[in-house]
Each structure stands twice: as C-alpha cells, then as structure tokens.
Amino acid sequence: MALLPIIYAPDNRLKLKCQEVHEIDESVCKLMDDMLETMYAAPGIGLSAPQVGDNRRILVCDVAREKEAPNPMKMVNPIVVWSSDEIFVAEEGCLSLPKHFAEVKRPKEIRVKYIDETGNNQEVAADGLLAACIQHEIDHLDGILFVDYLSPLKRNIILRKMKKLKRLKEAA
Ligand code: NI
C-alpha cells in the first residue's frame, strides 16, 4: 500500500464529474487500499478518488470512533437510491480543505447502491454521520465540495485562505 498525495481546493481536478468504473480490476482494488491508508493517515473519515487525482467513481470511508473496531467501506459507482425527508445537520470538514469546518444540511437517512471490491452489487442503509459522510464523498464524484453549500461569502473566505495556504506550501 502507499500514501497518496491529497489535492487541496481550489483545484480544477476537484470540479470534474468522475467516470463510471466498468471493471473491478487490480488497479481499482489497489487504489481503494491506498485511499484507505491515506485517509487513516490524514486522519479522516472519508476520501474520494478525485481527491487523489483519479477520475473514477470510487470512495472509501470509515466513521468508527477511536475506541471502536475499524469499519472500512469501499464503494465503486455509488448511487443514492433513496433519501429521507428528515434532515441531519453535521459539521463537515474535508481532507481537501484542511482545518475548515462548516455545518451542512443533508438527508438524515439514505440507501446507497454500489459495487464492492469483488465486483458484487451491494445496497446499504446509512444514517447520521455515515449518511453525511457517504453523501459528502459522492458529491466529490460530481465535482461538488461541502463549501459549495455555504453562502458565497463564507465559501470565498475559505477558498481565499486555501489559496494562501497553497501559495505558502509551494514557496516552502
Ligand atoms: Ni471531502
């Protein structure tokens, strides 16, 4: 396994609509393993392929708490097939926007269809934090960041700070 460099916003590679995966081959399995390792090291609770520069519809997540057993999930071509009217508000962050957090409203419960690492179709129900995490990661596959749900004012403050951070990193 390998740690992958995470792309920071703003970056055009985070604004693309990702491509469906047609075959679960070794490259897909390796990418998901590397993404999980990268996510745990960050540390974070979710990571999508475009955040590591791969334009395929793939995400990983694990919302287990520190003292709980790890519960890694790997999803290829995930689709929300049902979502509740009930709303859940969570403070979200993103490994592509480190140190920035904001409240985002999303459906509290969802059902998601996806393909697992063995090529089998799966359907899972999620609510609360897991549902928010999966929806956040699926958004990435459509080029949407959590700051896109904020007011233009709040979004621009965060993106301006990110631009400054990136300039400092490049200069270092
Ligand atoms: Ni994110």
Question: Care to describe what's here?
Answer:
By secondary structure, the protein is α+β, with helices and mostly antiparallel strands. The chain has a single domain (12-171), classed as Peptide deformylase (Peptide Deformylase, Alpha-Beta Complex). The protein is 29% helix and 26% strand. The protein has helices spanning 26-41, 128-141, 152-171; strands at residues 46-48, 58-61, 73-83, 87-92, 102-107, 109-115, 121-127. The strands form 2 sheets. It has a 5-stranded antiparallel sheet. The protein has a two-stranded antiparallel sheet with strand order 4-5. The longest helix has 20 residues, at 152-171. The protein is globular and about 45 Å long. The two termini are 28 Å apart. The mean pLDDT is 97. Bound molecules: nickel (II) ion (NI).
Series of secondary-structure elements, N-terminal to C-terminal: HEEEEEEEHH
**End-to-end CA span:** 28 Å
Query: Could you give a short account of the major beta sheet?
Result: 5 strands, antiparallel
Instruction: Compute the CA-based radius of gyration.
Output: 16 Å
SS element count, helices: 3
Any idea what the CATH superfamily is called? Answer: Peptide deformylase
* CATH architect. name: Alpha-Beta Complex
Q: The CATH topology is what?
A: Peptide Deformylase
Global mean pLDDT: 97
Number of domains: 1
Ligands in the structure?
nickel (II) ion
Pick out the low-confidence regions: none
Q: Using the alpha-carbon principal axes, give the shape.
A: globular
Beta-strand content estimate: 25-35%
Structural class: alpha+beta
Helix share of residues? Answer: 25-40%
Strand order of the largest sheet: 1-2-3-6-7
For the record, what CATH class applies?
Alpha Beta
Strand segment tally = 7
